[in-house]
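fold-stage: in
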Amino acid sequence: MSSIVSFAVPTATSAPTGATNTYLVGSRGSILVDPAGRTPALDRAVDERSVDHLLVTHTHPDHVGAVAEYAATTGATLWAHSRYRDRFERATGVEPDRTFADGDEVVSGDGTRVVVVETPGHAPDHLAFVVGESALVGDLAMAEGSVLVGDDGDLSAYLTSLDRLLALAPSRCYPGHGPPIEEPEPTLSRLIDHRRERERRVLAAVRSGCETVDAIVESAYEKDLSGLEELAAQAVRAHVRKLASEGEIEWDGGCARTVDSRDR
């Protein structure tokens, strides 16, 4: 079984943990995943190991803050999603050495094998990495709470990615934020159910006459959103885009309305 060691790196993340998980994978810590920033503990761990490969689950800023530095200090092979090479360079400031796609494997010098799984939705370039019976899932899932699907996300793709991870049936998942997911199946099912319920509330809000994002947020959420208003607005926009793409509502980017049943 490959070793997976986590380091909580303080970042400017919207996650309630205030930190992003960076992982060293392999018996000699030969694969570095999501170097979000530098900490003394992570520096020591990297110095004590021989890092062969550097991977990221996606290129949101809170996951790539120290990619360039660790690529330079370790000499590791730097990998990027094959369809998002330019996005990777813009986010990290460095060019990848190699690219990979769904189903590819990265094999380190200590024999650790990582299988690449495309899991878009939270971000268009989002990936998960399967290591044995475990999976590093980035911002696809969290042990507690829900994952933001924001303005650069795709809710339909996100739900499909959750279904895909469910089908892979990992025994444990290592998320980008928070503790390991010890029971993936109920956690992933909870996240799917949460999104389906939020979608029902958003659709009901539009059908009740709510047209703007602010009005939909007020109707669809039954909790205090102090400090979270923008995140809720992003989530609602993601739901509205999905509903519009499925013909459930009309959305012009600012105003939502129901679709006359005669037009469907």
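fold-stage: in (second)
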Amino acid sequence: MFSKIRANFFTGALIVSPLVLTYWVMYFIVDKLNMLLLEPFAGVFKNLVPAQNIEFLTTFLTFILLLVFLTGIGFAARIIILRNIFGFGEKILYRVPMISTIYRTIKEISVSFLVQKNTIFQRVVLVEYTRRGIYQLGFVLSEAAGEVQKKTEGLVINVFIPTTPNPTSGILAIVPIKDTIPLDMSVADGMKMVISGGAVVPKNTDGHRLKDTDDRR
């Protein structure tokens, strides 16, 4: 019987103690801040608020400022905690074979095309590769120059043809501009298509998804 009473007592103490301690700390802080802010607030509100209400108003405003401050601290702490959790999860992803390659690639592409405004790619084109009738997505880097341009017929351009699903690797093709088919999709949309292996297909200018050749006939 005595052991149950003792257990209940300690349980109640554990529940009440944090509340009492929190109240005491808050009361102490508000009281000290109130003493510091009473005179400045009294100078501001003396012509707006009756003298007998200035102390109450100062206490109220002090309490509100304290709540805002503590809420800001909590918000900042949550951001730090979430960032640490995300960083820990990211480290795990980097250690998983195959997933690490895909995740790292998607992150690099996202940073490159969604955060940075300037990219090395100018536009997206279709290039017949590895044979006639087989098309690859290519990203135009620049017009060819120097010896390459002098020793080729007509205007040629430097086109990067990426691999799927890792577009950080690929080949550089020097292609006559007349043999390329310009596309309206953005560079970012083209990269999404490459990374997804064609699962993510951007919409054309008419708002309809691109269809294969048989559907267009």
